[in-house]
């Protein structure tokens, strides 16, 4: 007589329920789901595991699969249970419209669970997103960037000093780490008045990304985490300090080194929008969004410039006019650099 364990039965029942649920979900996605009528692979439409396989196991190869599908299914196709891919540049102006034409809400699942809840970028409602984004806009205008130009220049000169000190040492320097350190220090300074710590790190802080992790997890997962401090903690401390100092908007404005969050704390934004918790999440978004993107772009530009002598020579020749006499004392101004046509083209190409 066969002997069955109660645990085995429970396990079989759980697996059975899970399978029935999975099959039901796949049927719903293929028949009643709002995207069910779009062309594309049926497996990809039924389950997200197909995308997972190509992006995680095959390390980011889903884009090539999508490209192949566009040849077969046309310019608009379904690439997973809840997303479409559109390969038609003319459709851009149809999709990305101003709020006056159509109000768009973000798809919250896209960014949920990464610790940014309450920040403008995670705000679903069109109106609230606008309200939360508005106070940040002046800092990214031309005038806003001109205001922080001396701080950026100081960081660039610090980096130049460090690289010069290594000249002739035979040491190999990883430029991706260097640029992450530079971008991370610039954005920490602009958001939180934090002094340069990554550029001063012996190895250019290759593990800066761990600063994005929640502090409790950081301490467990990364033994050096306590000394490193999380970005969240940095932001929370800075915002709590500025709140307790309670500077007037005039005093904050008078100092070009006042951080973005010092400005926001002293603004007339409703108190509910200025809580330490919400603003520190907003700061996390800027710290995260401003580091990897900038570092990667600098990395692309540097790689292609250094590996292509023709570009390198032309750029060096053009920069000589503005930087010929540079001795580490005074950085060139943005207003002079932006007049250089070839440099501007190189930057645009890197961004593209
Ligand atoms: C070369 C550098 C950069 C590139 C290539 C880049 C690229 C992008 C792209 C493509 C998006 C749209 C993402 C989406 O909608 O899914 C975005 C959004 C954003 N970026 Fe950047 N970025 C760069 C630098 C920065 C910097 C320096 C900051 C801040 C200091 C920043 C802050 C943001 C924020 C806050 C958003 C979200 C805006 C919103 O939801 O309203 N980015 N960026």
UniProtKB/TrEMBL annotation:
Annotated protein name in UniProt: Cytochrome P450
Cofactor: heme
Entry GO MF terms: heme binding; iron ion binding; monooxygenase activity; oxidoreductase activity, acting on paired donors, with incorporation or reduction of molecular oxygen
UniProt family annotation: Belongs to the cytochrome P450 family.
Gene3D superfamilies: Cytochrome P450
The organism of origin for this protein: Ramalina farinacea
Membrane-traversing stretches: 6-28
Record keywords, A-Z: Iron, Membrane, Metal-binding, Monooxygenase, Oxidoreductase, Transmembrane, Transmembrane helix
């Amino acid at each position: 007589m066969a002997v069955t364990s109660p645990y085995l039965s429970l396990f079989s029942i759980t697996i059975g329920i899970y399978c029935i649920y999975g099959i039901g979900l796949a049927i719903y996605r293929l028949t009643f789901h709002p995207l069910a009528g779009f062309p594309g692979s049926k497996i990809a439409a039924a389950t997200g595991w197909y995308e997972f396989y190509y992006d995680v196991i095959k390390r980011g190869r889903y884009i090539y699969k999508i490209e192949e599908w566009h040849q077969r299914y046309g310019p608009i196709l379904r690439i997973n249970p809840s997303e479409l891919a559109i390969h038609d540049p003319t459709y851009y102006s149809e999709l990305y419209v101003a709020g006056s034409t159509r109000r768009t809400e973000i798809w919250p699942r896209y960014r949920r669970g990464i610790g940014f809840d309450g920040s403008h970028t995670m705000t679903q409602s069109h109106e609230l997103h606008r309200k939360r984004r508005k106070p940040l806009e002046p800092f990214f205008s031309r005038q806003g960037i001109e205001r922080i130009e001396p701080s950026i220049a100081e960081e660039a000169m610090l980096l130049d000093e460090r690289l010069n000190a290594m000249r002739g040492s035979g040491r190999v320097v990883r430029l991706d780490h260097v640029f992450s350190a530079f971008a991370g220090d610039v954005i920490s300074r602009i958001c939180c008045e934090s002094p340069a710590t990554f550029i001063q790190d012996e190895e250019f802080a290759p593990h800066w990304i761990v600063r994005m992790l929640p502090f409790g997890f950081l301490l467990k997962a990364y033994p050096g985490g306590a000394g490193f401090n999380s970005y969240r903690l940095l932001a929370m401390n800075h915002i709590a300090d500025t709140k307790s100092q309670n500077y007037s908007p005039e005093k904050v404005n008078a100092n070009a080194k006042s951080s973005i969050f010092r400005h926001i704390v002293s603004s007339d934004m409703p108190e509910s929008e200025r809580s330490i918790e919400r603003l520190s999440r907003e700061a996390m978004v800027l710290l995260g969004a401003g580091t990897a993107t900038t570092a990667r772009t600098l990395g692309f530009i540097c790689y292609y410039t250094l590996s292509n002598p023709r570009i390198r020579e032309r750029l060096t020749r053009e920069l000589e006019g503005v930087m010929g006499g540079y001795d580490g004392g005074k950085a060139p101004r943005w207003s002079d650099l932006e007049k250089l046509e070839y440099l501007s083209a190189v930057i645009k190409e890197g961004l593209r």
